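Q: I'm writing up a methods section and want to include an example of the input and output format. Could you take the sequence below and give the corresponding predicted structure tokens, formatted cleanly so I can copy it straight into the document?
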Amino acid sequence: MKAPIKAVVFDVGKVLIRWDMRLLFAKLIRDPAELDWFLANVVTEEWHFEHDAGRELAEMVAEKKLQFPDHAHIIEAYATRFLETIPGHIPGTHELVERLAARDVPLYALTNFAVPFWAEFRPTEPIFDHFRDIVVSGQEKMAKPDPAIYALSEERFGYPGHELLFIDDNPANIKAARECGWNAHHFHDAKSLEADLKAYGLLD
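A: Here is the clean output for your methods example:
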């Protein structure tokens, strides 16, 4: 038996939902080599992360269109067709949320997500009705793995880090959480997560 956990904090992308920008842009760029170049040089995950951290979408897109005018219409799709980068759920994790909720385990989320994209996405997922609070990086203008967002989450959720179990797919975010005193599960699949939840006594 591991130390008692009083609440569980989920990441969203690649833990509860699938997310892959390639799925959207493959519809707009048919040549695989050009698609690889576009995702490595134009709409990159690093650039997307700026939006997650609170940078304004209109400013980002306008700047990127000036840099790559030949791809302006494709860059625009980033702003207007974001839900097409989310093809569905991660197998098994929604069922684990439902089981935790049925046991009245307090559930929270801490996600790197841009404000306009979150506003568009959140209503599509009733699973978040089980969550008591969700810290969204774009709203706070800080993002994982910044220790400040973990401190904010402790304040919002009302638990010290040692009473929380944090679930995330990103090693840097897991490392930061542990350095802040949180318990953390580096997510790979629902089966291993279920085993850890049982080890903490959160599931039968």
